[in-house]
Amino acid sequence: MNTDETLNQQLEDARQRLHDLYEEYGFGHACVLEQSMFLDELINQYNRMFQTRKQTQLV
What we know:
- Pfam families: SpoOE-like.
- This protein is mainly alpha-helical.
- Helix content is 88%, strand content 0%.
- It is built from 2 helices and no strands.
- α1 (3-25) packs antiparallel against α2 (30-58).
């Protein structure tokens, strides 16, 4: 599995976990907020990777 596939799988797993936690605990619970921050960081990582790749292609 390459880096793109691994990151995409991590994103999907984190998104699903966030959804499950939200369904169980509601929006304001600490574990939901923590999972949301974790997902945000994965999204940021994905965006940085995409932006770097885009800039490399322009050069």
